[in-house]
What we know:
CATH architecture of the largest domain: 3-Layer(aba) Sandwich
Number of helices: 13
Number of domains: 4
Structural class: alpha/beta
Strand content: 15-25%
CATH topology of the largest domain: Rossmann fold
CATH class of the largest domain: Alpha Beta
Oligomer: single chain
Strand order of the largest sheet: 21-20-22-27-26-28-29
CATH superfamily of the largest domain: Alpha/Beta hydrolase fold, catalytic domain
Shape: globular
Low-confidence stretches: 16-20
Number of strands: 29
Amino acid sequence: MRTHAWIKTLCAVTFSVSCVWAQAPIPRILPPAGIELPKEEQEKLVARIEKIRELAATKEKQGMFILSVAQDADIEIFLLAVEFALEFDEFYDPKDLAKATALLDEAEKRMKEAAKEESPWVDGKTGLIVAGYTPELSPDETPQPYGLVIPKGHDFDEPCPLYVWLHGRGDKQTNLHFIYERMRSQGQIAPPGAIVLHPFGRQCVGFKFAGETDITEAILDVKDRYNIDPSRVVLIGFSMGGAGAWHYGAHYATDFCAVSPGAGFAETAKYRRLKPEDFPPGYEQKLWGLYDVPCYTRNLFNLPTIAYSGENDKQIQAAQIMEEAFLAEGRKLEHLIGPGVEHKYEPKTLEKLLGRLAGIVKQQQPDMPSEVHLQTRTLAYPYMHWVNAERLTEHWLDSRIDAKLVGNKIVMTTKNIESLSLFPFEQMAGVEIAIDGDRLIVKKPLKAGEDGPKAAYLHRVGGHWTEMTRLPTGMHKNEYVHGPIDDAFTGNGRVVVVMPTGKSKHEKVAAWVKNESEHQLTRWRALMRGELTVKTDKEVLAELAEADDVPTTDNYLLWGDVDSNLLLAKWQKDLPVEWKEKTWSLGGKSYDASTTVPVLIYPNPDDGTKYVVLNSGLTFREGHDSTNSNQTPKLPDWAAIDITVPADANAAGKVVAAGLFDEEWQAKGK
């Protein structure tokens, strides 16, 4: 197998660490380890992978052909699937060897077809298709697979509906098994006249974080390849996919004409049956608001939402929770219940559901809805149709904008919103706005970007709304940078892991950095099915110097301290952590630099739309993987970690302090 980039980089970095500080391995839950293939079978698979890659390299070197980005992804997903299976023991039955062989057969076939400058596996093909894309929004650039079902006799010239189906939890349904199934099964639904998309969702993370971004990028890739009617896109899923449909539909209601979650879970505390005495720290409870769907209930008023549950399914709890949330907001949730069944679709009820969705798909959707509801807890999800929340008064509180068009007038109310923008009309000048008891006439619409529409920008001053005459400046939480730490690993673009080449003064810190950085890279690869880009601090500094300090397009994860990481030393005056000889401080409090490590997320000093993360990967760990409902942020914007307490499946050490930065990125404390 090829040597992964992060292994090469780590080998190039010198850690002067006593073996007494070696970290015990943390048992992996996802994916579970399977059987070990005979060595000769492993070697055969590795040899085939290398042969297929060599074929492409040789042909390209000879100038015979160059794979397009789409072709490369469509082939690479098969090779990566087998590589992952070999690396993480994802063969669960001796028969799985045949799956790996089938995938490599398909990869080799596609490579030979691509050499003829053809892509017959997608071009004009109907039935079952497996394709891939190379991520642009996600933290890594590892090609990701998805499945398609295209009806027989499909007219590729006519705009068609798209049904996005989110799969259930499958601990063993890794790339190898997902792709093999998508090559052979159409799945639960196949609506006539529509294309069905099966996103992979990074396998088993509840379609959260990079799994959430995977849905977005898979949809975009399908829209690039096929003539999809954007006003007729349906989101539907069951079990873990139902949970994904709940939160993704609530976060991105603008993108769909209907959403139908089946079973799954909709929030954290009640689903996990947590008693108050078992609740985590207050900041972690606040961060449940990232994916707890009741916090986004009003967004689901923007489109038909049809829940499904089996009558005897324990997970009917999710729809009941959302029924309560709808009633609290004065609406009733449509909830179809399959009589006499547990955790599955009852056939006649599924038929009724699909009939309801087909009827919605046939309706003409308005280009500009006259009524819009936005509810959020974070600027990670700041927009709904023609309404944008630009700034919140305080993150992680209930925040709302309810707006209605009445002729050429906009009537609206808000909650916990400091500034917003509106763009329902091509020409916003002269539009009257009634907002929270204030009335104003738009005089100077502003354009946020070269290609964006002109919008009315409003700001609350002294309790009253006024029109902005220029776009706001200064450091402030916004739609690009808002935290918490895990947000860097969602959809803000590539994350470059920056390893230190210098030497820390503190042996325990150096050992912790070595162990934790290696652990996080392996965890990302196993759990998120991708490979993060890894570079040394010297490499990044050289790149920045060569670019003449042109703003980066990357987020940076910096490991180490101010003595060991040269990039951290370069930026230390622009970050909220202050290092001294024996201590470091944040928010006015000092910590022992030899036994305590800072972790945080902060705007990149060279580009305020990107992040710098210090000493942390994903904050939920192996101990949280047994249920997708527990794969939630465990740390806020910053924390101090006591590393004398060994890292384990639940934490990287003991959290001695943690907190959220305020809206101007200043430390708030606990």
